[in-house]
Amino acid sequence: MTEAEETRMVRKMDIKIFPILVCLYMLSFLDRVNIGNARLYHFEADLGLKGNEYQLCVSMLFITYVTFELPTNLILKMVQPKRFIPIVSIGWGIVSLCTGFCQNKTQIIAMRLLLGIFEAGYFPAICFYLTFFYRRRELAVRIFYLFAASAVSGSCGGLLAFAIGHMDGIRGMSAWRWLMILEGIPTIVLGVLSYFLLANDPYDAKYLTDREKSFTSIRRTLDGTTFGMEGEKQKIDWQQCREAWKDWKVWSLATAQIGVTVMLYGYSTFLPTIINALGYSGIHTQLMTIPCYATGALVYLAIAKLSDRTGYRGYFAVGGCATACIGYAILLGTPSYGPGAQFAGCVIVAAGLYVAVGIPISWMPNNLPSHFKRAAGQGTSMTLGNCAGIFSSFIYRTQDKPEYRLGHGLTLAFVFCSGCMFLMTSLLLRRENKKRDRGERDYVLVGKTPEEIARLGDYHPEYRYLY
């Protein structure tokens, strides 16, 4: 297949795969963080929330989210993606819609717990799903499409919340109730459509010719995406899972993921509250979130393309962390300079946020070619990372506004530590590649059968890590 034919094939996959996945991820993110917009429309008063009970409600989602994230990632190959994705998306759409009818704290907590169960599997599943179709150096831009969706979701969420804010009082319901209901309905509709639009893998894709289906497998094998996947069974391979849980790369990136996820959820959930504390009205606060998310999306697009072109991951993740740290330093150091300086800090944080969170998500599967090792590693990383969502719910306390020094300071510290972990991981992987170039890992092949060699995965001396 020529380069032009391959380009057309990849474009064809993009057109068939991404519209539905991106729209669902946008709604997933929106349904997860719209509680931040709801807070500006009598949410706490209507439900009788006092003190830090709002933060408690926010954090409930992450309890079930982190509990179910790894198991759902492991069963994806056992449950067809075209069934799994519709089930979870319809589920969280129904939960989001029902949230609009909650009357007290107990009911809202129950809805948040259910939302976590259904949303837990979606993002890990689609990141894993993409590895069935794309090469390693094609993933960063594709992950960008998803994170751009969250940035667009933040922008559209603010704009939508601004519009729905004018529905306050219609049929005797507060605007936040309409917000939950009207954001849940499209999710249900798209979830149903996804069953008919998605293929399980390239061989199930009706839009690919037989020649293209064969070539997707060949090019991913040559690229190293499927190293060690020969003859894998549909049932869970616990040996590969154990290999993932013993692999230092998994724990290094998973630990770093905690810090940047503190930033992601803290920023996304509390940005409206932070901007509102700068003196903007509730409705205009929604509009002021748009420049932040738009900046994050544009910067991430440029970096994702550069990352795929160069093959570097860690260096760009470090740069994203450094940029976000500068933004938080501005937020901490300029409360007396007025809302302009504080808002600039919010924009700079957004410029680094999506790079720091998104690039490592494509980095982990890039270096774990074996199917269930990749599933276990990615699931572990996201599970640990999303544990940070529980913590991030409580660091922006009501009594700390308008400066939120505790929240900004703790987030800066977490992101700085994550940047150091990304740098260390990148340097160690680079050193390992050089050792393999010098033949220092060839001893791994000695005495092994062809079947054992085929299952070495990323431990094979010919495999090269992306760093």
UniProtKB/TrEMBL annotation:
InterPro entries attached to this UniProt entry: MFS, MFS_dom, MFS_trans_sf
PROSITE patterns: MFS
Keywords in alphabetical order: Membrane, Transmembrane, Transmembrane helix, Transport
All copies of domain Major facilitator superfamily (MFS) profile, residue ranges: 17-436
Any Pfam family: MFS_1
GO CC terms, sorted: membrane
Compartments (UniProt record): Membrane
Membrane topology: Multi-pass membrane protein
GO MF entries: transmembrane transporter activity
Keyword Transferase set for record: no
Signal peptide limits: none
Top-level taxonomic group: Eukaryota
Transmembrane segments: 15-33, 53-72, 84-102, 108-131, 143-164, 176-198, 250-271, 283-303, 315-334, 340-363, 375-396, 408-429
Protein's name in the database: Putative MFS transporter
